[in-house]
Design goal:
The protein is an alpha/beta fold. The protein has 13 helices and 13 strands. It has helices at 2-10, 15-29, 33-42, 76-81, 124-133, 156-167, 192-213, 232-241, 277-291, 306-315, 324-329, 332-348, 353-362; strands spanning 52-54, 57-59, 63-65, 86-92, 105-108, 113-116, 141-145, 173-177, 219-223, 246-249, 270-273, 296-300, 319-322. The strands form 3 sheets. It has an 8-stranded parallel barrel, surrounded by 5 helices. The chain has a 3-stranded antiparallel β-sheet with strand order 5-6-11, with no helix packed on it. A two-stranded antiparallel sheet has the order 1-2. Strand 3 (63-65), helix 4 and strand 4 (86-92) form a beta-alpha-beta unit. Helix 10 crosses helix 12 (332-348) and helix 12 packs across helix 13 (353-362). Bound molecules: flavin mononucleotide (FMN). Flavin mononucleotide binds next to strand 6, strand 11 and helix 11.
Length: 363
């Protein structure tokens, strides 16, 4: 139904208009229990239970929604009903900000890709907090934190720490976004010199919050696919040294692989979807080599089939996320991927997906 009827209608609209229309609809549906029941029976109920226990969190399945789709936490109820194993909400910035001028989101249907330069359009933490506090959730929630465009890069840590403090009670985990290509100088924070300071601040703040609330919330750091291969081992060591729990690989890329004859390739911003798949997979492998299981890897970038999902797990990912694949294939993709992973588990004879993945990695 999605690819036959809904997608052609949505794709007649400009990419961001279609996005806003869908979010409005999902947000309204979230307040109507018959609509939620319908969404759940059409989609969520088709997704098999495939639990994974990671970072002390029980995920009903390993496939999450990647950050950027629900930046202000407006659609938690409806998105959970679709059957995602978890939702990563945000990126939220401390103060509200408009992001970059429009147009800033472009579909490349032939490549099943998207280019965006949204620039952290965000209602700010206050709006995010109001939305999340009044929502019903049925899956774990990650909160993806960013910095305001007006905050100098030298003070970026203040913005992330502020997000951590204000949203601590609402997150099952946090994601620290230092990899968006659309906020000036942000990706400098990935350099080994800056990263240590930032992670030190986050780790100290989390220690305080853990004591205050008697609850330790895991922190994941989201990295770009454009980092040099040579710097991956250094980044991995810093993450471990500063007690981070996970790394999300990857954000969008500023490269344009396979887009030689595509006029939209010249639009500035980050590329996601199938053209990103190969590089995101490579980064996952490199991180897995460097980390050797010491912290969790969350794989994102170009996953659009069950086989992509399985290959990403074999490469080292413990959890997965989709964004562009969801735009092109809609809610049925969630069940398709989770069913495919469940089949791999059954074939392996293992009782959990995690055991099946470990067994397959050894072969
Ligand atoms: C329109 C759009 C907006 C995005 N906004 C964010 C964001 O605010 N924060 C973030 O960490 N990642 C953001 N991303 C990146 C995705 O979370 C994901 O890492 C990336 O798209 C790769 O996954 P995919 O190939 O499945 O889309 C955005 C992606 C798209 C397409």
């Amino acid at each position: 139904m999605y690819e036959q009827f809904i997608r052609p209608l949505l794709f007649r609209l400009d990419a961001e208009e279609a996005h806003e229309f869908t979010l409005d609809w999902l947000s309204r549906a979230g307040h109507l229990s018959p609509a939620i029941s319908l969404i759940r029976s059409l989609y969520g109920k088709q997704v098999p239970e495939l639990p994974v226990e990671i970072m002390g969190i029980r995920f009903p399945n390993p496939l999450g929604l990647a950050a950027g789709l629900d930046k202000d936490a407006r659609c938690i109820h409806a998105l959970s009903a679709l059957g995602f194993g978890y939702l990563e909400l945000g990126t939220v910035t401390p103060e509200s900000q408009p992001g970059n001028p429009k147009p800033r989101m472009f579909r490349l249907p032939r490549q099943e890709a998207i280019i965006n330069r949204m620039g952290f359009n965000s209602g700010g933490i206050k709006v995010f907090l109001d939305n999340i506090a009044s929502s019903t959730k049925s899956a774990p929630i990650g909160i993806n934190l960013g910095k305001n465009a007006t905050t100098p890069i030298e003070q970026a840590a203040d913005d992330y720490v502020s997000g951590l403090k204000q949203l601590y009670l609402y997150a099952d985990y946090f994601a620290i976004n230092i990899s968006s290509p659309n906020t000036k100088n942000l990706r400098e924070l990935q350099s080994v010199a800056s990263l240590g300071n930032l992670l030190g601040r986050l780790s100290n703040q989390r220690k305080e919050l853990t004591e205050t609330f008697n609850r330790r919330v895991p922190i994941a750091v989201k990295i770009a696919p454009d980092v040099d291969n040579d710097s991956i081992a250094g980044i991995a060591e810093l993450l471990v040294e500063h007690d981070m729990d996970a790394v999300i690989a990857t954000n969008t890329t500023i490269a344009r692989p396979g887009l030689e004859h595509e006029p939209l390739a010249e639009e500035g911003g980050g590329l996601s979807g199938i053209p990103l798949k190969e590089r995101a997979l490579e980064i996952t492998k490199l991180l897995y080599q460097a980390l050797d299981g010491r912290i969790v890897i969350i794989g994102a970038g170009g996953i659009s089939t069950a086989e992509d999902a399985w290959q990403r797990m074999l490469a080292g990912a413990d959890l997965l996320q989709i964004y562009s694949g969801f735009v092109y294939h809609g809610p049925p993709l969630i069940a398709e991927i989770v069913k495919g992973l469940e089949e791999k588990r059954t074939e392996s004879g293992c009782s959990t997906l995690q055991e099946a993945v470990q067994q397959a990695r050894r072969i």
